[in-house]
Design goal:
16 helices, 42% helix, six-stranded mixed β-sheet, alpha/beta
Length: 466
């Protein structure tokens, strides 16, 4: 397998050296094949390669964001606040919904295909010079290295950098010294890698905390707060703790175009803001916005010039795809992919006005707690119809497993309403039936996996941000 990979690299580099430009889809296809060739490396090994390519991270002002839920949303809100303050901002997040370029943003926009191919070629050359042999970067490491080369070649004032799976052992934790560390909500996810208790998972996420670097985190659970605060004290990191009661006066209201928004106030020991607005129906985003506000306070305290109006306007302007997002009239998609995310989604879905029928399109990957998510869906009593689909990924739960899980949970659950179930081998087939049978006044939701959100968007031809 490695010999095949080396041959592919040599062929691509020969073409580049001859002045040929690589096409986006062949670069993307190469990246997609990486998991077949390699495995994750240690943070020390990752740092060695960063040093080999010139330590680009040392030239950057990096805001490092970890957590279980809300990482991408916090990155997005904070990026918009910084942009409103007049800074150029890069943002590296994962996963992407439809196209890999979504992971690399400059000033709110995914990079162009041509830039992706350019940086892809630059990294291939560096990898060959480094002589990785049998230690080729993993999929996420490859994209992280691309991000480092990208933001060195196309510099920004601040880079908001989201971790991948965890924190302590994450490839992104190889960076030299961030200006700010951020930890969002801690929940039960990726237990096979991070541990099966909140405390253990929090310990992994707290691995991003650096000596004398300010830390913003969300005080949602005592078990995680204890672990995070202890680690911060050991490293003399100044703590900015976001409490749930900082958010007040929550209400929904339409904007000028008639879209439902959320208005709220925020008051901490540092700041007080009234009349804040988020362009979303998802009340769980208020917590993520509160974390971003506290990040702005922490940055102000180290001399970053952010005005109050930058915060209010940045939050109002921010959009983040796949999080209780209205992609078509009466059609919402949400990336809820674990128990906490599903709980938040169901709370929001139950509050969306619906004149007639609520339909859920559900799909999940096998390494998630999909049985528990199914139980939550059934016990919520929200949906009249559930369409269950296999996802187009090797990680998907099979149709037979999904059917067995729903049938099992139906037997165990106390359901007071009739629910119609349909099962599909593809998201496309499910969507065709849903759209064909949908009547006036019906509302459709899709949730269970970010893969599902991406496949719904791709099928409907709706790119993120459109």
């Amino acid at each position: 397998m490695m010999e095949e990979l080396k041959n592919s690299i040599n062929e691509l580099l020969t073409r580049l050296d001859a002045g040929e430009r690589l096409g986006f889809y062949e670069c993307d296809r190469f990246v997609d094949q990486i998991p077949a060739f390699t495995e994750k490396h240690s943070v020390e090994e990752t740092r060695k390669f960063l040093e080999f390519i010139g330590s680009p991270d040392r030239k950057m002002h990096i805001i490092h964001v970890a957590g279980t839920n809300g990482k991408g949303s916090v990155c997005n809100y904070l990026s918009e606040i910084l942009r409103q303050a007049g800074f150029s901002v890069g943002m590296f997040t994962s996963p992407h919904l439809v196209k890999v370029t979504e992971r690399f943003c400059i000033n709110g926009k995914p990079i162009e295909d041509s830039i992706f191919c350019e940086i892809f070629g630059d990294l291939l050359r560096k990898i060959k010079e480094y002589n990785y042999d049998d230690d080729f970067p993993s999929y996420f490491e490859f994209l992280f290295f691309m991000a480092m080369l990208l933001y060195e070649k196309y510099p920004v004032d601040y880079l908001v950098l989201e971790t991948g799976l965890g924190g302590r052992l994450d490839a992104t934790n190889s960076i030299h010294q961030p200006v700010l560390d951020v930890i969002t909500e801690i929940g039960m996810d990726h237990m096979q890698y991070l541990g099966n208790t909140i405390s253990r998972i929090a310990g992994e996420k707290a691995g991003i905390i650096r000596s004398n670097t300010p830390l913003v985190f969300c005080n949602r659970r005592d078990e995680s707060t204890e672990v995070i605060e202890k680690r911060a004290e050991e490293l003399s990191a100044k703590v900015y703790k976001v409490e749930p009661d900082y958010v007040k006066d929550i209400k929904t209201a339409p904007d000028d175009a008639g879209n439902i928004c959320i208005d709220f106030s925020y008051e901490s020991q540092y700041d007080k803001y009234c009349g804040l607005r988020l362009q979303t129906v998802a009340k769980f985003q208020i917590e993520n916005a509160a974390i971003a506000i506290m990040c702005a306070r922490a940055l102000r305290d180290i001399g970053v010039n952010i005005a109050d109006e930058d915060i209010s306007y940045g939050l109002k302007k921010a959009r983040w795809g796949g999080r209780m997002e209205l992609i078509l009239p009466g059609f919402y998609v949400d990336g809820a992919h674990n128990v906490d995310g599903m709980e938040a989604f169901l709370e929001c879905a139950g509050e969306v006005p619906c004149e007639k029928k609520r339909t859920l399109l559900f799909g999940a990957v096998a390494d998630k707690q999909y049985h528990l998510m199914i139980r939550q869906i059934l016990e919520s009593g929200i949906f009249d119809e559930v369409c269950v689909s296999v996802l187009e990924t090797g990680r998907s739960v099979s149709e037979s497993q999904l059917r067995a899980a729903f049938e099992s949970e139906m037997r165990n659950a106390n359901i007071e309403r009739d629910i119609r179930f349909s099962y599909y081998t593809s998201v496309r087939d499910a969507l065709m039936d849903i759209i064909t049978e949908r009547g006036a006044g019906d509302v459709v939701f899709a949730a269970g996996s970010l893969y599902l959100v991406g496949q719904v968007r791709e099928t409907l031809g709706i790119l993120p941000g459109h």
